[in-house]
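queue> holo job accepted (iron/sulfur cluster)
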Amino acid sequence: MLAAAGGADAAPGGAPYELPSTLTPSKLQRFVSCPLAFRLSYLDRRPEPPTVDQLRGTLVHRALQVLYASGPAAGRRLERARTALEEAFEEPALRGELDQLGLDEAALARLGREAAALVEKYFALEDPTRVHPIGLELDLRARVDGIELRGIIDRLDRLEDGNMVVVDYKTGRAPRPEQSRARLGGVHFYAYLCEQLLGRRPSEVRLLYLRDQVVVVESPTDQSMRGLRQRATAVWTAITRACATGDFRPNPSPLCRSCAFRSSCPAAPATCVGAITR
Ligand code: SF4
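queue> job finished
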């Protein structure tokens, strides 16, 4: 049983939680934001129904993946991307998530229009016929300091000068300029994985915010790679400790508004309707 907000719950019988097999940017961020949400999601594997925002993002990512995966570069036109998006709506896995949302006809049509608008906006940020991807939805894993780091990169490009660029599509709002560096943690994670596995550090990481048509670019440095490694190690140590003690404290924040567990979380502001048990 979870104690009151801010308290800790022990695993039944004092049994430790099993450590997750990998550390991904999402897991790292989730634990830092709220250890309890991390536990419920990744250790207890509580279901998290998809949201419209998440599904819109997944559909757009899929359309852009197919755009790059099919046919020659010259054919990477808006029409092909639109077709890929329509097909994404029909893919069984995505269809299943759509059904879970239970949208009525009007809401479904709105989702289709919004996703199509994001795909169209993408073309204002890049000319895909001039891009040389060497990896799409690239699943990378590297063992570092005893931790299995894992990341799935939307796109890895090779530039004409031989350098590599990590590209990450974002379908939510772009951060304010002063926050944009903080959002680069995930792509630095990817750059670190590339360096470990491919023996070469990407020269750039790019976040493409389709909705606001903003591109955030940064060059990984020795310092940023060192910082990433230290952060990953520190968070993993904290996760290990939490798993051993069962102490996954809730951390109420504005993120509670979009947390799938808020209706049963005793720490969620104004939405406390019950307690969480393992
Ligand atoms: S509602 Fe807030 S405090 Fe509760 S688990 Fe979710 S993010 Fe954590």
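queue> The radius of gyration is 20 Å.
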